[in-house]
Amino acid sequence: xxxxxxxxxLLSVATIVFSGIATAQTNEQQHRLSDEPSxxxxxxxxxxxxxxxGLELVGINYRRGGTxxxxxxxxxxxxQIVFKDSVGMLLPRTAREQSEMGNIVDRNxxxxxxxxxxxxxxxxxxxxxxxxxxxxxxHAPRTGAEIRVEDMSQGYWVKRYNGARRVVER
Length: 170
Fold this sequence. Notes:
The protein is α+β, with helices and mostly antiparallel strands. It is built from six helices and eight strands, in the order αααββααβββββαβ.
C-alpha cells in the first residue's frame, strides 16, 4: 500500500471513529476506500480471527511440548497454532522466544489478541496466553487441564504477570 493511500485511509477512519461524522468524498476516494478494508476493519478482523481460532481449541488437553491439537498443546504451542491458522503468522516455539516478538504493551492498554506472559515455573516469561478483553485470557494451563479462559485479576495471575506484547499490528 502506498504511503498516501495509507494516510488517506487512516484519516478517513479517524474522522469516522472519533467524530462519528462521515465526510463527503469524491467517487474516486470512495472507490479507493472500498477496495480494501479500513484500518478499523483490519484491527477488528484480525483480533476476531485470533479469538475465534483460540476459542475453537478450548477443551483440548494440555501436553508438555505439544504442538498438535490432536495430541495436545502446551501454552506456546497453542499460541503458535492460533496465530498461524488465524492470521498466517509463524511465531517462535517457546513462551520466552514469543516474549521477544512485537511491541511491549502496558497492562492498562491491552487489546484483544495481545500476548500476555506469566512466571509460572520460577522464571520470567515461562507461560503465555492470548488476551481476550475484560481481564480475561485464553491459554493452555498445565498437565491434567484443558485449554480454557481465565481471569487475570485472580490473585494467582496477578502475582505472576510479567508483561504483554502486541505482535499483530492493528
